[in-house]
Input
Amino acid sequence: MISVRYINRPNWQKVASDPAALLSDLESESVFIVRGYLAAESCDQIKSDCQNFAKANGATWSPLLNDCPDYYRIHNNYPNAHVKTVQNGWYFHTWNNKFAQIFAMPGIAELFELKQRLGGLADESFLTNKADMGPVARMVVHQYPRGGGGQEEHIDPVSNFARCQTVIQASSPGVDYQSGGFFVRDSSGSVTELDELTKKGDLVVMSPGVRHGVGAIDSSADLKWDSSDGRWIIMPIILLSDHFADTAERPKKVVTRGSR
Output
């Protein structure tokens, strides 16, 4: 059964300092909501920068190989996607300038340190690796637009560099959108709606192996890909590049009887 635990920044630092206990909690389907983890002003700055990036560069895609450029992508239920989604996505890499700007915001570096501790990683080489050298860090920003933005229910890969999922709520539920949003499903099939429990700047920490998805955002509205509202999230992640053809490291769609 999902157990949602609300916690402030100082107490979260105490929890995060004990990797074994935290992993045990996450693996028993506990979800932590850390209040006010990232300043609302930082969330808004990242969102504004992303929209400016999209206007300046247009939508494209690049495989995650050495010297991969930062890019903006429109996801609209691509048939070959591991998990179908309707969203705008931005992808920033350590070897380009934008990553460093976000990394410098208070709280972001600590999330990569958390992933390092939970995975027992010997060092922070993922912050300096080229894509063909091993795991690399990436800053991901997603916007699920009003008018049906969302994501199929799925689980994310669990590995020694991805023992927890860290999702920063960058929008204000009830203001930027009215319905839909992030949900998790426990092992018994019970669903917990998380967006209605969060505010802009809150951090959600959970196991990647917990089933989750994004219910359609304001599905009756007109879909506008360039709108600034809808549901925004910021995710610092560590992953293997496309130099490594390991499909076990990709998200997997979950088909649940009665799922949305």
Observations:
- Residues 77 and 84 are 5 Å apart (CA to CA).
- The first strand starts at residue 3 and ends at 7.
